[in-house]
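Our consortium's second objective concerns turning raw sequence data into structural hypotheses that experimental partners can test. To show how far this objective has progressed, the report includes one record in full. It was chosen at random from the queue rather than selected for favorable results. The single chain below, 142 residues long, was entered without modification.
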Amino acid sequence: FRSCNENFAYRSAVHRSLSSLSEESSAPEARDYRSILQEDEYHRLANSTIHNLVEKLEEYGDSVEIDGFDVDYGNEVLTLKLGISGTYVINKQTPNRQIWLSSPVSGPSRFDWDQATQSWVYRRTKQKLVELLETELEKLFG
């Protein structure tokens, strides 16, 4: 009889733990991005954003003295090398209709197109792609 009560108590505790995890989860809900943003529109928006970033970063590189600074764009991947400060990688993720960023400062982020603000936004933090880059580069180099 005692082991039956212990088993019931254990199962109840596990159930409560799992229930609280699902209630407390702050993970973004799953989305079907194909229904939100058609592929041709996604490519137009993502390509425009990345090409604008390439231009701005090249201009920025001309105005600062950073050893190892290099902007490279090829195969739909933008790479920004900052010498000892690290490397940023920005690329398109067509199946998810996202732009992905790998940052030496904040790590990986996935940006979705936000129609209301007309910008790429990281849903977890609500931060915009361009603003995140500006903030991080300012912190790194002033």
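The partners drew two points from this record. DSSP finds four helices and seven strands in the chain. The chain has a mean pLDDT of 83. Both points have been shared with the crystallography group to help prioritize constructs.
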